[in-house]
């Protein structure tokens, strides 16, 4: 919308108000209920509407096995109480009671066998050793098996000769059943808690919702247009942008300097495009590695940890060369493969090997995940990616934690670290990662053939992406994203490309719970290990210990459930509105959460015995 249109609309406002009338709320209201919950945007001419609430229900519901366990526990409890309300004497005196008790025992036996089946399924899902590493799970299994044996004996021991044995067995059995009911109730409670979802909304979402409701109240198209104009500016975060009245050209000279620069950049761009340089796309990647990448590049289960034993930090160079070759970025963007390798080697060697988490493997993992979003989740078409866009997404991911000292921003600020002093306590680490990337790019003359315009575009997007990986920005950035998604004109292929880039990198950076447990668990111990090393230093220095950094109080399982509930799950649910294909992979997060829910007691025991 041009400034002239804005001004025209401003002058039309009074006219619109004079003719406006309130209409009763009817069918529009009903459609607006859906409107509140859905976001629509346009991809290559097709208007897509994604009902996020519907996918939420599909993917966050309690799985069948847990529902079955809840039902079984309820029936089992009922039977235990029926059994408790009758004594064996009642049964002797009344044949009906005896018959009822017999039937309840048979049903109990069936339920106990089903519990055995449940344990077998969980063993199959989580692995036998993992499941029984929790001593309570082992104890449960023991009680269930013992109870089955006792019921079978109880049903078969008849006559006075066995009365004494029978009495003792009944006593033990009653106690065991009570204990089992207690344990199973705890399990049900955990399952229910695992299904809990948190809804965090921002005022801007509420404002947009109110304005939408208001627009629904009017028939006058001018007023609706004014309200939509307001919604557009609020959701674009442009409410403080200047609207220039009168002679614009002079004011623009002062206020909007980049306009002039942009003109120069486009001329420069024409100049540089006339130089014909052809670069080969062959980087002489080791053949075995090329095949390994080809097989696993879209595989979230990829066991890339072993690659580092063989290739060390050069693995990042190899991965990036593979992507650049595959997507023909060398020839299209006129990037010299030699400069590229030098730049990647420099980045790789600037990741600290001694860091448990923020090392080159993490850079590999995040880049791998970003490519998964591009290719498997089809962001290449949704975001209408150009070759330059590919290079921005991949390079920013590879460099997003370069030269990370294994300490977080809070520690750097508290200890007056050099980086905190350089960047004035504002996302110091992320600023440093971005600055280091551009230092490497400059030193290796990576973009010597880029136009000023392309370089500026790359730099702006890349810096924004890397800065968005500061978790302190998560809440604000997430609310901005939701406001954009709630707007009428969300367009991931054009005006919202930047916010989508930021979102993809941040999502990849917090993607551990999105991965199969085999990889997720390794990352969990690595990240907490690094946090705890920081906590040890904080204690030694007499500083307050940062949350999750105290090895004596952090319950590993609880920390991950909190991470999933507060950050990962809400973020990925929203990300599905941009990448609908993601829905196919969301169950993994819930499955991982259930795994941790079952491990809480195990980790609590470890903490208590420290
Ligand atoms: Zn990271």
Automatic annotation (TrEMBL):
Taken from the UniProt entry, a GO cellular component term is:
membrane
Regions that span the bilayer: 68-86, 106-124, 136-155
The reply to whether Metal-binding figures as a keyword in the UniProt entry is yes
UniProt family annotation: Belongs to the cyclic nucleotide phosphodiesterase family.
List residues of the PDEase domain: 281-603
Q: Which GO terms describe its biological process?
A: negative regulation of cAMP/PKA signal transduction; signal transduction
**Binding annotation for Zn(2+) 1:** 362, 400-401, 509
Q: Which SUPFAM superfamilies match?
A: HD-domain/PDEase-like (SSF109604), Voltage-gated potassium channels (SSF81324)
Query: Which organism is the protein's source?
Result: Paramecium tetraurelia
Which cofactor(s) does the record list? a divalent metal cation
Q: Which InterPro entries match?
A: HD/PDEase_dom, Ion_trans_dom, PDEase, PDEase_catalytic_dom, PDEase_catalytic_dom_sf, PDEase_CS, Volt_channel_dom_sf
Protein's name according to its UniProt entry: Phosphodiesterase
Q: Which Pfam families match?
A: Ion_trans, PDEase_I
The annotated topology with respect to the bilayer is: Multi-pass membrane protein
Which Gene3D superfamilies does this entry report, sorted A to Z?
Answer: 3'5'-cyclic nucleotide phosphodiesterase, catalytic domain, Voltage-gated potassium channels. Chain C
**Binding residue positions for AMP:** 358-362, 401, 509, 560
EC number(s)?
A: 3.1.4.-
Q: Which residues bind Zn(2+) 2?
A: 401
Q: Which GO terms describe its molecular function?
A: 3',5'-cyclic-AMP phosphodiesterase activity; 3',5'-cyclic-GMP phosphodiesterase activity; metal ion binding; monoatomic ion channel activity
Q: Which residues does the entry assign to the active site, renumbered to this chain?
A: 358
Cofactor note (record): Binds 2 divalent metal cations per subunit. Site 1 may preferentially bind zinc ions, while site 2 has a preference for magnesium and/or manganese ions.
UniProt-listed PROSITE patterns: PDEASE_I_1, PDEASE_I_2
């Amino acid at each position: 919308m041009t400034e002239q249109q804005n001004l025209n609309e401003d002058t039309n406002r009074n006219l619109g108000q004079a003719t406006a009338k309130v209409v009763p709320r009817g069918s529009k209201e009903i459609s607006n209920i859906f409107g509140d919950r859905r976001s629509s945007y346009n991809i290559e001419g097709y208007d897509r509407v994604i009902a996020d609430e519907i996918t939420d229900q599909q993917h966050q519901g309690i799985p069948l096995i847990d529902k079955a366990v809840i039902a079984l526990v309820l029936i089992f409890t009922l039977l235990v109480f029926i059994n408790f309300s009758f004594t064996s004497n009642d049964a002797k005196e009344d044949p009906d009671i005896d018959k009822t008790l017999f039937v309840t025992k048979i049903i109990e036996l069936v339920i106990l066998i089903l519990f055995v089946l449940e344990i077998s399924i969980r063993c199959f899902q989580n692995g036998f050793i993992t499941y029984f590493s929790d001593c309570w799970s082992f104890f449960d299994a023991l009680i269930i098996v013992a109870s089955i044996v006792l019921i079978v004996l109880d049903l078969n021991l008849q006559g006075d000769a066995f009365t004494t044995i029978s009495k003792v067995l009944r006593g033990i059995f009653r106690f065991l059943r009570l204990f089992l009911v207690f344990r199973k109730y705890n399990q049900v409670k955990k399952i229910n808690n695992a299904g809990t979802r948190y809804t965090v909304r921002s005022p801007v979402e509420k404002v947009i919702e109110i304005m939408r409701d208001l627009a629904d109240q009017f028939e006058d198209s001018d007023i609706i247009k004014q309200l939509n104009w307001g919604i557009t500016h609020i959701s674009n975060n442009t409410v403080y942008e200047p609207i220039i009245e009168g002679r614009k050209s002079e004011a623009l000279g002062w206020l909007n300097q980049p306009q002039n620069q942009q003109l120069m950049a486009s001329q420069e761009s024409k100049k540089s495009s006339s130089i014909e340089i052809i670069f080969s796309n062959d980087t002489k990647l080791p053949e075995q590695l090329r095949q390994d990448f080809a097989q696993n590049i879209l595989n979230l289960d990829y066991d890339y940890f072993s690659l580092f034993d063989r290739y060390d930090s050069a693995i990042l160079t190899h991965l990036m060369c593979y992507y650049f070759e595959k997507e023909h970025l060398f020839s299209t963007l006129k990037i010299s493969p030699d400069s590229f390798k030098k730049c990647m080697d420099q980045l790789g060697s600037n990741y600290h090997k001694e860091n448990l988490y923020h090392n080159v493997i993490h850079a590999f993992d995040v880049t791998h995940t970003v490519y998964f979003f591009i290719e498997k989740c089809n962001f290449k078409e949704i975001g209408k990616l150009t070759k330059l866009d590919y290079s921005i997404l991949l390079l920013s991911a590879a460099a997003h934690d370069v030269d990370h000292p294994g300490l977080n921003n809070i520690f750097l600020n508290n200890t007056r670290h050099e980086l905190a002093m350089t960047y004035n306590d504002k996302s110091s680490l992320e600023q440093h990662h971005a600055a280091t990337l551009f230092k490497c790019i400059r030193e290796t003359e990576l973009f010597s053939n880029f136009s000023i315009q392309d370089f500026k575009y790359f730099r702006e997007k890349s810096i924004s992406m890397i800065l968005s990986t500061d978790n302190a920005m998560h809440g604000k950035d997430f609310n901005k994203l939701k406001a954009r998604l709630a707007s009428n004109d969300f367009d991931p292929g054009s005006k919202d490309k930047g916010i989508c880039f930021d979102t993809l990198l941040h999502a990849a950076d917090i993607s551990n719970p999105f991965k199969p447990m085999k990889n997720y668990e390794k990352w969990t111990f690595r990240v907490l290990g690094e946090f705890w090393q920081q906590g040890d230093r904080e204690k030694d220095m007499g500083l307050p210990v940062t949350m999750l950094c105290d090895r004596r109080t952090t319950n590993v399982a609880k920390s991950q459930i909190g991470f999933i509930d507060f950050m990962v799950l809400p973020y990925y649910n929203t990300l599905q509105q941009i990448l609908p294909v993601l829905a196919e992979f969301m169950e993994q997060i819930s499955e991982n959460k259930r795994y941790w829910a079952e491990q809480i007691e195990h980790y609590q025991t470890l903490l208590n015995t420290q």
